[in-house]
Amino acid sequence: MSEQTSPQALAKLGAALIIEQALVDGRWISGSGEPIVVEDPSEETRLGQVPSLSGEEVETAIAAAARAFPDWAARKGKARGEILSRWAGLVTANEHGLAALISLENGKPWKEALGEVRYANSFITWFAGMAERMDGRAIESAKDDDLILAFREPVGPVAAITPWNFPAAMITRKVAAAFCAGCTVVLKPASATPFTALALGRLALEAGVPEGVFSVVTGANSQVGARLTGSKLIRKLSFTGSTEVGRQLAADCAPTLKRLSMELGGAAPLIVFEDADLDAAVEGAIAAKFRAAGQTCVCPNRLYVHQAVQEAFLERFTARVAGLKVGKPFEDGVEIGPLISAKGLDKVEGHIARTKASGGRVLTGGGRHRLGGRFFQPTVLAGGDDRLFAAEETFGPVAPVFGFLTEEEALSRANASEFGLAAYLFTRDLDRAMRAGRALEAGIIGVNTGVISNAANPFGGVKQSGYGREGSTYGVDDYLQVKSLTLALG
Ligand code: SIN
Predict the structure, then answer these.
(1) Distance (Å, rounded) from C-alpha 215 to C-alpha 62?
(2) How far is the CA of 271 from the centre of ligand 1 (A)?
């Protein structure tokens, strides 16, 4: 199919994948609670509804995950990998529809949504390949008469709680790694974007994922989240979302001592040194900052540019940002969609107002877009107080730029944040790149690039941005535990 299909046809393709039921133990159920309405953020209209599952219905999904676990874990990795490969094939076969579905429920421009589907699928493919390469270790004992064998075994049934900003990729990054390891999964997608998760669930079933191995439960956090965190059967929680919610979930999981992976908030710095290739820095900053309309945890939240090149950078960067096309997701050439919610718009406006109050200037944008609704102008700010942006994610299309004079100053301001997810730096000096890259307190560093999201890259943070790694060969470790066998030698 052409990637130039009409907006109406794309919307129809996405809508055709909507399932208004939850997936529990291989069955589609309508749930007993008041359904949750899902909106199209670009039209601010009702897209559909999903069930609000009761605590008992969530328990059914958990019990199914526990029941299905021994058989799934006992299968050869190769067999699980084959199922993952079939899932990947089905995702590819449906990629235009899935992208349209993401655009409908998230508002992301369709081309960007298609990029997300491919990114999401790269995790399935990655872990499909890894599933038959799982190994343990033979360890030389400290004693003469025995041998130690260390096996890596799946941790057990897993709960995954995923955000709305990547309705597909955050799911596959967790679920494919869990399946690779031999874990079963109960997934709770964000209530704003549950349809992509449900569509992925259907394709997983079609690919041969056995009943109970993958449930997709929808509903209120108070019911669903609480059952997942409180359950003794669930042995691990993987969460992507805010630090505040992550802390609460970690506390809720403490009584049952679950393993945790926490991919939490960020306030990424992006540093442009005086010797940087400015065109690369501008393009890197655009790619990193304006992806998903600025609503990713790895978006640079503050740009530090050496004063010697600040004017030149700001001129080129502002011109590029002013030219970004804002619009509805299926319109041709659109680069920036709406924000997910009115609350998101308020936060963005608040950050701009506070920057102006601290002496900052608006170089382009600065307000709501003429399209109205949840659309906001791509914005560049210069000067003012950077501490706000080190402390709070803006989660919108706003790039605040600050000057600096020395490498030491740039690094110290970059690290003056409780968060540490991503960081970016631009320089032509390899020594400086290594030095600064190692000194930055973050889990994922981009050097001369704004694109760090990649199935092969260990993704995760330090400090209050959480712990655990997703994707890459490390990504499966979070779903495995080590068992040792000590063999007496005759
Ligand atoms: C996120 O914003 O949480 C994930 C971004 C990514 O995977 O690139």
Answers:
(1) 8
(2) 20
User: 263 an active-site residue?
Assistant: yes
Structure token digits, residue 154: 């799946």
Positive or negative, the CA dihedral 445, 448, 450, 451 is negative
**C-alpha of residue 70 to centroid of ligand 1, in Å:** 32
Closest ligand 1 atom number to CA of residue 165? 2
Residue-wise pLDDT for 197-225, tens only, equals 999 999 999 999 999 999 999 998 888 99
On whether the pTM is more than 0.70, the answer is yes
pLDDT (tens digit, 9 = 90+) per residue, 106-139? 999 999 999 999 999 999 999 999 999 999 999 9
Q: Which atom of ligand 1 is nearest to the CA of 299?
A: 2
Distance (Å) from CA 263 to ligand 1 centroid: 9
User: Is 299 tagged catalytic?
Assistant: no
